[in-house]
Amino acid sequence: MISSERRDLCVGLVLLVGALFLCFLVIPFFVQQDSTSVMSPRFFPYFSAAVLGLLSALLIISTLISSRRRAAEEEHALPTEKSTATTQRPWYMWRTWLAVAALCAYFVCFDYFDFLVVTPFATAALMLIFGEKKILSYLIIAPGITIVLYLLFEVVLKVPLD
Amino acid sequence: MFHDIILGFSLILNFTNILGIIGGTFFGVILGAIPGLTGTMGMALIIPLTYTLSPITAFAILMGTFKGCLYGGSIPAILINTPGTPAACVTIFDGYPLAQKGQAGKALGMALWASVIGDGLSTLCLIFFAVSLAQVALKFGPPEYATLIVFSLTIVAGVSGESILKGLIAATLGFLFAIVGLDPITSTPRFTFGMVALFEGINLMVMLIGLFAVSEFLVQTENIHTSRKQFVPKFKGTITLRELIKCLPAILKGTAIGTVLGAIPGLGAVPSAFLSYSEAQRSSKHPEEFGKGAIEGVAAAEAGNNATCGGSMIPLLALGVPGDVTAAVLLGAFLIHGLTLGPTLFTEQTEFVYALFAALLVAIAFLPIVGRISIYFFGLMTRVPQSVLFPVTAILCVVGGYGFNSSQDDLWLMLIFGLIGYVMRKIDYPLAPFLIGFILEPIGEIAIRQSLALSNGSLFIFVTRPIAALFLGLAALATVVIYRVNFKKAKAQRASKGMVCKT
After folding, report:
1. Is the whole model's pTM more than 0.90, yes or no?
2. Are B237 and B106 a contacting pair, CB within 8 Å?
């Protein structure tokens, strides 16, 4: 089984489990019943969860079928035509997760500190993650974009940022 | 009528009004181009500034702003994969891939001309057919909305790419997320987990910014210092007359769809843009190119989007019923200036009505100039290095996301959708169907439940009403066509593999 097929199978299984989880645990406890309307508030959640479960099952079945079909075809195929495993980038790309962490830190600090204080540091941190090398860029862009956004939203558009 | 139109132009064509239209259009384009700021917000901000102006000048500025906002949303959609307005999310599907191929100028040019043509033609429909079209819009009740949404769901197959199954799964996930919030009929909480912040559901723009912009930002972090060529949208390519003529059928169909759907209260520009895109793909000679940088896709999306401007004004002026949220804000402006909307407006305020029509046409005439200037300035963004562009875009998204409700919860939601979008892109699940499911679920659910309430639970209401039955028939036909096309494609693929094995 090639990696994309394995991936589809895993995703299908996760979604199927998720659909069952929704049907039997989440909806009964987190969607209140109401008998006053013609269609219950639980109808669409159950309908969507059921469709998700059905489609996930179809995905699992179709992946297994296509995997077996491909394996059968490769038995008769020339060596050059056999599919090679696709190389997948690892999920734990540290820069990506560092960027997520930087955004989370920005959101938390947004609550405690002023926009004008936090945003230059957040901008600089993200530029650092993206590999910006010029010091001048940090000194100009980070505070510059903060001031521009502050003027645009707070002063011109009267949209509060604090 | 022609005498009234000439009178309208004579009232509009003075220095103050023209300046107001140009200023309003510029303001609208800038607002539309900044993710997180919408046309509705722009109109709401401009209205207080027009208190002391005459009604004609006030609405000249407002119409310019309205037009500018509708077009402006396509600029960031094409350049940085971030829709400036909700309806511009469809422009992303082909606009951003075009920019990735170094054809950002071509995509922006087509977006501009499709907007001008779509908006212009729908405004002409407004001028000549407002009252008649309003009568058709009146025939739309909950069953018609419900079946229209069912028909719209067939779009999912068109934007799913190679795997319709994955597209359907993505659409279902979008459905599930759209359910979050209070039940629209009984107001009981659904999937809120006790959090008051989720009672109003998930804000569409917050979801859009997260799903497209934040996920793109996260994807781009993988491209730093790798052997893969870093993407810098090259601002090359201009639209030629030949390309514009080639896309004219898509633009005209999009205009018709946008004008009709814009006239139906409550639908808005997003379903129009989706349906227009879907129709263009269906009737294209090369439907496989859609989603990979087909210029027709940009044309259809923008025409469908912008044509709702004229369409949404039809029920507003003829019946006093706003076609969408922005038109609802305009309704407030009308009331502030002491104008009563409805059929009597055309008889008692004829001068004002035709001055308004003239303002709309003049705004469209200036849009190409304003648009070209805006494209030039926003195009300068393409010279900014990635290491600055993406971090600044991320900060802009955060500020834009926060600006809606001044709520930190929206920021976390935006990040969550960013991660969902990132994961979906990693596992090859298309984002467009997710968006379709998210947008159509609330409209469809309310319509279906209202219909069943009207019919005391009987499903026959969907087949006994002619327009509803028509949409159901179209949905069934579309499903059969899609199934046959895919069956033939799969058969042809198996046949070609079989021939390779035999040889």
Report:
1. no
2. yes
